[in-house]
Design a protein that fits this description.
Blueprint: E1 4-7, E2 13-17, E3 24-28, E4 39-42, E5 48-54, E6 61-71, E7 78-87, E8 90-95, E9 106-112, E10 120-131, E11 134-139, H1 147-153
Parallel strand pairs: 1-5
Antiparallel strand pairs: 2-3, 4-5, 6-7, 6-9, 7-8, 8-11, 9-10, 10-11
């Protein structure tokens, strides 16, 4: 069984729900913030399962969406991508080509949601992480609420 992803609230509390008996308990996640690993939890029902605390401010959904990006800083960089994850504040994607994107580059990302309307999302963003085969970016327009993206991200 994969570990449960547990979201940590702003007050550093986290709600853990046992996948076996559905019992719920709230714990303080302060002492686990620096640990980036799966923790084993033993429930009152005596079952043991793994949890991973997620300290992100925004829920991030795993995806496999088609799209493209254009590097506004390096105008010769851009092309087709597969968006691997998305949140209200950013996304992570795999370029389908050799890219030149670097941290702090300004980019424009366009991708199509796999919802009933095949909604096209277009966002300006800043590169926060760039490796050979992955780019993580933060959307620039954080104050604007995108209802289509928000609805798509609902669990």
């Amino acid at each position: 069984m994969d570990p449960l992803k547990i979201f940590v609230k702003e007050d550093n509390s986290a709600v853990i729900k046992c996948p076996f008996c559905m019992s719920v308990r709230t714990v303080s996640a302060v002492k686990f913030k620096e640990l980036n690993k799966v923790l084993k939890v033993k429930c009152v029902c005596k079952k043991v399962f793994g949890v991973k605390f997620e300290y992100r401010k925004m829920y991030r959904k795993e995806t496999s969406l088609t799209g493209s990006y254009v590097n506004l800083t390096q105008t010769t960089d851009g092309g087709n991508i597969t968006v691997k994850n998305v949140s209200m504040s950013g996304c992570g994607f795999t370029p389908l080509f050799i890219h030149n994107a670097e941290k702090d580059d300004n980019i424009k990302v366009t991708f199509t949601l796999d919802n009933n309307d095949s909604t096209v999302i277009e966002k300006k963003a800043v590169v926060r992480l760039s490796t050979k085969d992955y780019i993580g970016c933060e959307f620039v327009e954080k104050d604007a609420y995108d209802k289509d993206l928000g609805f798509f991200l609902m669990p």
